[in-house]
Write a structure and sequence with these properties.
alpha/beta; 10 strands; 336 residues; 5-stranded mixed β-sheet; Nucleotidyltransferase, domain 5; 11 helices; globular
């Protein structure tokens, strides 16, 4: 069987990324142009600025991805692109670019769900991993517990009913003066703090045991900060960071491992930007080991937004004969 080469484009938020993959799992190139320094001074991603930077960078990033892989556009068998979810303006830049390339080079076009891409990142480094399996997806805008039944096919067991875990990290980081991006800043501060210093609530959703809620945890942190300020008490930022991080990790770990045990799943896949958090990875590894569950996690470079994960997802749609027409559009609210 001849090798399949996939060019993938990712522009859902503030990373302009392109990658070339062989047969869906071998990364020949993975180029990421991050705008993090630009948005840090604003305390978060500014959609208009993100879109403008994608426009400025996308051609250069794609050319570098092709060059790094030592291939030309004519060598490519399919073009995958993130169609959603994400910032609509940012998504439109990638979708328009992919459509133009597919039309000009007469190549198949595949629109990819960004969240599916995060799960597929695990296929890059775990050649033995194939569906079905249970996955915990934790990113800035999404927290899902799902069964991946087949490539591209998911059953959602639970999702956040309010803030996603990454979103809560960002809001708490802002409240305690750590700034953006919240996840890495809280993880760094937490190393100097005690995870049992402050007891924050572990969010539960009535009548839906595998759904998530992080809004209450965030509010509890804000209430604690306000109370301490009113009482004139000093606040230990590392202790707040460590205690909040532990509360989030406890909920994520408990939900995922309980679901795996109940469903008889011996494999759990972790995915999404927050999957780069070492404390979360360690907690999940420990909990899984006790229950005889094999945990799969991608390297940090494949946890945060990248195009290689989009290329992997696109490949499996491509070999199933699934294509998109040039009417493909951005879907900012796309669900898994």
């Amino acid at each position: 069987m001849a090798d399949h080469l996939t060019l993938a484009i990712e522009s859902s938020c503030d990373e302009t990324a392109a990658a070339v993959l062989k047969n869906g799992r071998t990364v020949l190139s993975n180029v990421i142009d991050s705008q993090i320094d630009i948005h840090t001074k604003y305390g978060g991603v500014v959609p208009e600025i993100a879109s403008r930077n994608h426009i400025a960078n996308i051609d250069r990033v794609i050319r570098k991805a092709l060059s790094d892989a030592s291939v030309t556009l004519q060598d490519i068998d399919g073009i995958g692109v993130t169609k959603g979810p994400g910032l609509v303006g940012a998504l439109l830049v990638g979708v328009a670019e992919a459509k133009a390339l597919a039309f000009a080079a007469k190549k198949p076009l595949i629109g990819v769900n960004h969240i599916e891409g995060h799960v597929c990142a695990n296929f890059i480094e775990h050649p033995e991993l194939e569906p079905p399996f249970l996955c915990l997806i934790v990113s800035g805008g999404h927290t899902h517990l799902a069964m991946m039944r087949d490539y591209g096919s998911f059953d959602i067991l639970g999702r956040t009913v309010d803030d996603a875990a990454g979103e809560a990290f960002d809001k708490v980081a802002r409240a305690i003066g750590l700034g953006y991006p919240g996840g890495p800043k809280i993880e760094k501060a937490a190393k100097e703090g005690r995870p049992d210093a402050i007891r924050f609530p572990r969010g539960k959703v009535d009548d839906s045991r595998w759904d998530f809620s992080f809004s209450g945890m965030k509010s509890a942190v804000l209430n604690y900060l306000n109370h301490e300020e009113m009482m004139g008490n000093p606040v230990s930022v590392p202790d707040v960071a460590a205690s909040f991080q532990q509360a989030v990790i406890d909920v994520l770990t408990e939900h995922a491992v309980d679901a795996a045990v109940e469903l008889g799943q011996k494999r759990l896949v972790l995915a999404g930007g927050v999957a780069a958090n070492k404390t979360l990875r360690t907690a999940l590894e420990s909990a899984c080991e006790k229950k005889g569950i094999r945990l799969y996690v991608p390297s940090p470079i494949y946890c945060t937004d990248n195009a290689a994960m989009i290329g992997t997802a696109a490949y499996y749609h491509l070999i199933k004969g699934e294509r998109d027409g040039l009417e493909l559009n951005a879907e900012p609210g796309l669900r898994l």
